[in-house]
Specification:
By secondary structure, the protein is of the alpha+beta class. It folds into two domains: 1-25 and 35-65, no CATH class; 67-114. Helix content is 59%, strand content 16%. The chain is built from three helices and three strands; from the N terminus they run E-E-E-H-H-H. It has helices at 50-66, 70-77, 86-146, and strands at residues 6-11, 14-23, 38-44. The longest helix has 61 residues, at 86-146. It is elongated, with a radius of gyration of 30 Å. It holds the Pfam family AAA_lid_At3g28540.
Length: 147
């Protein structure tokens, strides 16, 4: 993404604009080790949405990214053809993040289902053991009562 480019995102009806900014150190000296540029992303949104962006949107973005490795992010940001624009690369990254999140949710849901099935199976086993113990006690009582 270049400094002159912006990326527009909408999350739960709130519009957010991402843009890259760079701070180039203003030095008049010559050095073999020039000072590094400082880059950061600037987020623009309506001031009435500040709390929402700080609490929900940024958490949403961070949660999505944690399901992908930096290599995956870089791969999705790399242009696939020579004349591909930045918007297309960012859209591909966002789609990959969404897919990654959906896959993680499906996996978590499947694990929860398996856990609940296992617990239900354990409960059934426990109840069948209790039934067997009850039958054994009844048989012993009947045997003791008949004697």
């Amino acid at each position: 993404m270049d400094e002159s480019q912006e990326f527009h995102d909408v999350f739960e009806g709130v519009k957010v604009v991402w843009s890259l900014r760079k701070i180039v150190p203003n030095t008049n000296s010559v050095s073999f080790y020039p000072a590094a540029d400082k880059s950061f992303y600037l987020l623009k949104f309506h001031r009435s949405h500040r709390d929402f962006v700080e609490k929900s949107y940024l958490n949403h973005v961070l949660e999505q990214e944690t399901n992908m490795t930096p290599a995956d992010v870089a791969e999705n940001l790399m242009p696939k053809v020579a004349n591909e624009d930045v918007e297309t690369s960012l859209e591909r990254l966002i789609q990959a993040l969404r897919t990654s999140k959906e896959d993680a949710e499906k996996k978590a849901k499947k694990e929860a289902e398996m856990k609940s099935e296992k617990e239900e199976g354990t409960i059934e086993e426990d109840s069948s053991k209790e039934d067997a113990e009850d039958k054994k006690l009844e048989e012993e009582e009947n045997a003791n009562g008949k004697s």
